[in-house]
Amino acid sequence: MELMIYLGVVGALLSVGYLAVDRCIDRSAALYRNANDITSALHTGEVWRSDIRSVIAPISTESSPSGETLHLRTSRGEILYRFETNSLSRRVGSNSWACLLPRVKGSTMAEDRRNSVTAWKWELELLPYRKDSSNTNRIVPLFTFLAVPQQPPTK
């Protein structure tokens, strides 16, 4: 009889331990995915800021029903950024579109006039990962990037 009680206690402890390890593995995987998304967003933001700094002509935006496109004329040719259907793409010159960020909830690129300087602001929100209904995802993937063209374009 005592052996059955010990086996029951050991079984209960193993079950609780398994559930704790499983939860830790799930949260570790979610943290890994979020860290990768944040790293990708920061890298993309730095590329965008570099492109803004290298413009040689006025920057223009174009809105369409399918999304928003930012036109940058640089010494390397025209660079386009397009937000469309939860993804952000970039095209340099006449090359094909390259997807920079696949899980984008929202993206807005607009002028930000400050006294005698015209900066550009990019607000980016990534789609969060939702595995379960419990609110375990506490990271709000929202970013704001600012850049100022090095040579002020003439209008």
Report on the structure:
The protein has one helix and eight strands; from the N terminus they run αββββββββ. The chain has one domain (36-147). With 155 residues, it is α+β, with helices and mostly antiparallel strands. The protein is elongated and about 85 Å long. It has a five-stranded antiparallel beta sheet, with helices on one face. A three-stranded antiparallel beta sheet has the order 6-7-8, covered by helices on one side. The model has no long low-confidence stretch (mean pLDDT 87). 34% of the residues lie in helices and 37% in strands.
* Element order: H for helix, E for strand: HEEEEEEEE
> What is the β-strand count?
8
Largest sheet: 5 strands, antiparallel
Distance between the termini: 90 Å
Strand order of the largest sheet: 1-2-3-4-5
- Domain module tally: 1
Supply the helix-strand structural class: alpha+beta
So how many helices?
A: 1
The rounded Rg comes to 24 Å
Low-confidence blocks of residues = none
Mean pLDDT: 87
Strand content: 35-45%
Helix content percent band: 25-40%
Q: What spatial form do the alpha-carbon principal axes imply?
A: elongated
